Every structure is written in C-alpha cells, then in structure tokens.
Amino acid sequence: MPVMASLNRALTRFGLPDDLGGVFVNLLLRLLLIVFTIDSLINAGDERFAGKALGPRNLVILFGFAMLFPVLFHLTKQWKQYPWWFDATYLSIFFLDMAGNSVNAYNSRPGFDLLPHSYGPGALAVVLMGAFAVGPLAAAGFATMLHTLLEVQEIYGDQFLGTKNVRDLMDTANDLMVGIVGAALFVLVYKGTEWYQRKRAHPKRVRQRRS
Asked: 206 burial class (0-12, 13-18, 19+ CB within 10 angstroms)?
C-alpha cells in the first residue's frame, strides 16, 4: 500500500526500523520470556514447575537460544535488514512453552502439550524457509529432527536426572506424531502463500549465475 510504503521510508529516514510491528512483537516476546524465566526461578518449588528443572532451562533459552538472530545478524551480516518477524516467530516457540508452564496449562489441561509440540516444529520450519532460504522438505526434516532430539533429551533427563517431563511411552509417541504433522502443515501452508515470496529475508550476498 502507498501509505505504508511512505511510512516505512519515513521511519528509515529517521533511523528507525521500517517494520515497527515486527519490532514491537519481538521486544514484547523477549520481555515475556524474561518474566516467565523469573517466575520459574522464584517459584521453583511451585507445582507448576516441580520436577521439571525449568529455571535453569529457561536461563539457557533466554541467554542462549533466544539470542540466535541477534548474534547471527551482527556477526555474519547475513540479512540486509534485521528479520524482526522471523525472529519473533522463532521466539514464539519458547514463549508458548514457557507460558504453558507458568499458567499451569500442562498440568491442568490434558492434551495441551500437543499444541506446543505441533507448533514448535512448524514454526521452526517456517523460520528456516523464510530467514535462511532452506528448502521446504529440508526445513520440515530438520525441524522434525530437532524435535525428536528434544524428546530424547526429556527421556534421558527423566531417567538420569530425576526430572518428570514425560508421562509414558504414548506421551512421547503422540508428541512426535503431532510434531511431524505440524511441520508438514506449516510448510505446505506457508509455501503456498504470497507472503512467502514477499517477506523472505533475502541474504545480502547473492551468488552470480554462471554464464
């Protein structure tokens, strides 16, 4: 739209990001991740967090995984502009999981865990396609592989560290199944939208075609 294009140019002229919506959502998610992390540390003995070791895990997410895009942007200069929306989509994976624990949805609502286990691989696949130009099949496969590793980590954590993240074998099987469905569905829907072509974070350096 001409009005939005003019607004974006004006924001850029004054040194502001040209996508304030993405900036706002991104910063809001980061603030909420901090709130959820503090909650899990202060109330570690609460029934919402008991036996899950969520405090240390949330700290690793907050200062580790959640910093992926800022670190890559400043070290590699991979994108022309900061991919605010793709970073927000990536952060929303951790937000959904932390929020589910803080509001006690995992314990009080049977079946809630199927939502983050389907959304996580799907959202990650979209991020890989849009921000890193990964092909749809590879994006879905890589997201599913990481999801499987997460499930294995939870099983080993329960076995050797005494955590209580997995109920039984059927719980793991259901999580893996909805993860596969989520990754496939997100990829199919995202690839079929016009937004996929318009909003991809194109790299700065484009290889020249061989003549």
From this structure: exposed
pTM for the predicted model, two decimal places: 0.82
Could you tell me the two tokens for 7? 């607004």
Distance between CA atoms of 119 and 62, rounded to whole angstroms? 19
Segments making up each domain of the chain, as ranges: 17-109, 113-201
pLDDT tens profile 117-160:
999 999 999 999 999 999 999 999 999 999 999 999 888 877 77
E strand or H helix at 70: helix 68-76
- Helix, strand, coil percentages for the chain (3-state, nearest 5): 70, 0, 25
Cα distances (Å, whole numbers) of residue 142 to 26, 71, 167, 190, 210: 24, 21, 25, 16, 30
